[in-house]
Amino acid sequence: MSQEQEASPKRVAIITGAAEGIGRGIALRLARDGLDLGLFDLPRSEARLAELAESLKKEYGTKVSVVFGDVSKEEDVKRLVETVVLEHGSLYAMIANAGVAINRVLHETPTEELDRLLNINVKGTFFSYKYAAIQLIKQGHGGRIIGAASIASKKGIAEHSAYCATKFAIRGLTQSAAMDYGKHGITVNAYAPGAIETPLLHGLDEYHSKLSGQPRGTWSNSFTNILGRNGQPEDVAKLVSFLVSDDAAFITAATDGLSQYLVDGGTCFD
């Protein structure tokens, strides 16, 4: 390895919603890939995020910044990007992973729950894209912006009207952002998970179990796909690993007409 290669700084990725589920899986994979990380989640996740950061440092030698806040608050996301850049010197990728879901028929959805979904899923993604783009443009070396869509962004799902609306919005954000930032060498894509074994899926399953009286797992195992199983966080993390890599340099919504990649075992077809 040349001196120039040795002096080259490691790439840095921010992951929102990193304490558990898909976010945690992405953090583990990107650390294994050799990236340094900025991990972001709510203050209530402090213990889990601290444990994750420590394990990444020990196993992979990853330099980790841990920042707490709420993606629905613009100042928190701005502070996240500023803190990570201050501690690491630069940014390469933003993984706007944080999101929430509820089960409600449209007319039974409380307005405050609709606002919560819009604030976290849509505004949180918007703020993450915005401040990552500002930093990446300022640096002038390109980069990656990746958002969390869902199979719920591909087709409507019963009792998920508000959630589907937020995930359809992420498709529009991603497509438009890719067109805005391609000239800066910034690619913008989204991953669209199906049923992934996470605390979020288990929470939805618990809701349906109480409603129907059926055993736990009945609803979460009701999704049908070609592979015959629910996904794991690492299944999504593998795709994110590719999208962050140099191998995906020519993949963006602006060039291939796609805004997202399904990770659903073959549930949805276009």
From TrEMBL:
InterPro entries annotated for this entry?
Answer: NAD(P)-bd_dom_sf, Sc_DH/Rdtase_CS, SDR_fam
Pfam families attached to this UniProt entry:
adh_short_C2
Key word Lipoprotein present: no
Q: Which biological process annotations from GO are given for this protein?
A: fatty acid biosynthetic process
Record SUPFAM superfamilies: NAD(P)-binding Rossmann-fold domains
Q: Which UniProt keywords apply?
A: NADP
Give the Gene Ontology MF terms in alphabetical order. oxidoreductase activity, acting on the CH-OH group of donors, NAD or NADP as acceptor; quinone binding
Please indicate which superkingdom the organism of origin belongs to.
Eukaryota
In terms of Gene3D superfamilies, this protein maps to:
NAD(P)-binding Rossmann-like Domain
Q: What PANTHER family has UniProt attached to this entry?
A: 3-OXOACYL-(ACYL-CARRIER-PROTEIN) REDUCTASE, SHORT-CHAIN DEHYDROGENASES/REDUCTASES FAMILY MEMBER
Q: Which family does it belong to?
A: Belongs to the short-chain dehydrogenases/reductases (SDR) family.
Name of the protein? Acetoin reductase family protein
What is the organism of origin for this protein?
Lentinus tigrinus ALCF2SS1-6
